[in-house]
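Cross-check.
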Amino acid sequence: MFQNFDAPSRAHPITERLVALRAQLGRTGLQGFVVPHADEYQGEYIPASAERLAWLTGFTGSAGAAIVLTDEAAVFVDGRYTLQVRDQVDVADFTPEDLIGHPPHQWLKAKLSADDRIGYDPRLLTLAEVRRFEAVCQAAGAEFVALSENPIDAIWADRPLPPLSQVMQQPDDLAGETSVEKIRRMQAVLAEKGVDAAILAQSDSIAWIFNIRGADVPHNPVVLSYALLRRDERPTLYVDGRKLSNVLRDALSERADIKEERDFLVDLTKLGADGRRVLVDPQTTPALFARTLTDAKGTLVEGGDPVVLPKARKNAVELEGTRRAHRRDGAAMTRFLAWLDANGDQGTETEISVARKLEQFRAEAGVADDMPLLEISFDTISGAGPDGAIVHYRVNESTDRKLETGTLYLVDSGAQYRDGTTDITRTIAIGQPTSEMRDRFTRVLKGHIALATARFPKGTTGAQLDTLARHALWQAGLDFDHGTGHGVGVFLSVHEGPVRISKAGHLPPESGMILSNEPGYYKTGAYGIRIENLIVVTPPAPIEGGDREMLGFETITLAPIDRNLIEVALLTPTEKGWMDAYHARVRETLAPSLDGAALRFLIDATQPLEA
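Predicted model, tokenized:
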């Protein structure tokens, strides 16, 4: 299994660790310390060696932070973890706070006194984050102090070793472009921006430009490393040499200099001393890197990571690989749905057993075409009944709920294959759904179809498109509190920037980008509904009778949508036509890969709505 279901536990000497940290701070003259859930690479997923927040507080969620002061401490989590944090953290040690509504720098502002010294690890906070803390400290006459050593590391006696997964080459016939070609393109971008170099601090950007992949963190096939992209010289990849085979080192050396990570700051200092102009993304670059450059008299040019947009615009080879991955994954998902149809209402299956079964079907899917499942793309969200209403629910042994007749089951899952990354959500009626469930599901479906069929001019933002997915819910006084869509990589991060379809999505989707389409509805304590497919932005094309070319979407996820939950009377003829056409395509595409009960299920599940 790529996922474990261990129950959260307080079986850690948290109080003792907190006392030890305060003693360590006292020895260095500090009145506080900031502990983010972050590593030196600022990725969504971090290795065990960087789980300082979990070690100190007991909280194991994927986002959060803590601040420890001399006489009080707080742990900050978002709405996904309101219940989990109280299960895992002793509130006598850490007061739970709202990460979004009352973020750490605002909480600290009310606690500061003049001359306080609050420490932080400049490898773990980005330049933008440090500026927020510095502003509140300066206003109070306090100091935000960059530390050369993390005080937690000094007291974490059994800290795991950093990961050493072997780096692998992503073949050009899957990448669609050689690394040399990508480097040249990016060097042209640097020339346009008038900079001499750019820091690449995001692991997926580095993986993309060098056509490499790894397994240093869960679920995302990246290599923890840094890179310097130079306008007029070879780039440099800074990576632990133990991760490289001799063959791969030789191949990479043909297009880049290879150095150890410890050389990165040395080379930044040299760039600064030479008066170079260096592009830095303040939102993703550790503050230490920016300060190293400026201390050496280099010129910091703030801007976005230059790789992010080119990476998001998938080429034809990447798109075809992703389509293959989705056909493979769709067959696995359909086998799973057929199995669930036969077994889900027996009263014996649980959220964990069902999630394990789905992973089993995926593991079997790639054997025939030699594209095995290499990882899941995130921890499967397997929510029965009221657990489905928890948007980012992660089942464990203590919360594992049985699937019961008369309820809804929501499963949000994905896979990492060598040729593509998948992410799909289906909501399934276990037994007979209520009329309210059918109404809500159909309104979510209407929003899904509205986005899938949208035609829109170049420059339309994700926020503008987001309203399409909510309209049918809004008309009934309903809504959902997450974004409608995020970017997805190709055998890379399942959550990829910079474009998103959400109320805060201010960038426009561009041709070739892969996004999710996942409106939902959640009734607390009762059920959750989400329908998610991945979609590709199609090139501008004319519309008959129109005077302007329009972008659109191609749906690439292929799996049945539960017809038992559709209130057909709520759909327009156009919406019914889309649903029937989608199911016909699912049936035609997947049938050759299925047989027996799975094929019979597919044929039945994809019949026309009014057949």
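The domain at 168-311 is CATH 3.40.350.10 (Creatine Amidinohydrolase; Chain A, domain 1). The chain has three domains: 14-155, 168-311, 313-433+444-557. Passed to J.P. for a second look.
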